[in-house]
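Entry details:
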Amino acid sequence: MLKIENLHASTGGKEILKGVNLTVQDGEIHAVMGLNGAGKSTLSNVIVGHPAYEVTQGSITWDGKNLLALSPEERAHEGIFLSFQQPTEIPGVSMVNFMRAALNAKRKYQGLDPMSAGDFLKLMREKRAIVELDSKLASRSVNEGFSGGEKKRNEIFQMAMLEPKLAILDETDSGLDVDALRIVAEGFNRLRRPETSAIVITHYQRLLDYLKPDVVHVLIDGRIVKTAGPELATEIENRGFDWIRNELENKE
């Protein structure tokens, strides 16, 4: 599904990613862990096409297509979804209008007719229930006045509406209490289909306890330096990242 080879990327004239290699197959969940500044969020932003990041070397292939040749809008329509670490408030734009515009833009890209108002509202009710998003929040402006947990639920609700092939969860667990974390994680799990993949960016194991990744990667100084199974997240929880740094230094 997604293949990243020797990816180098910069922002503001500073190189952040220094040769990332990562392959995500259909249905797999990959966790990316690392300290602040390692390049985790840069990786997610490059995948979705954030204009502030420049790819200087390497390639990203998505279902056989050159992802780097696609605009951010085309990448979204192709089925790539990013759940932001800090979701943006959009005053004056209702959730209903926002989601209907996004859904119908994707349908147009796929050559489908717009969804009728009745069908859209029915779908919205069904998906809202998955993440226990209050109906009053769904009728308000996008994220305006939402708590941190409500914003994160809203992100998963948007994912539910758009049904992406690849979901990138960029520190979705940040700032969530235990109950909100459970609701968000369980909502994501209910939305998964056999072909749905995810890249989960996190500092902690607690989200991974719910999502149960197939593979865990450690990103340090712009490179993936260690890859293993879910047990790696447990080891990091217990020992931190210093032991991985020490391993790298000893190899050198």
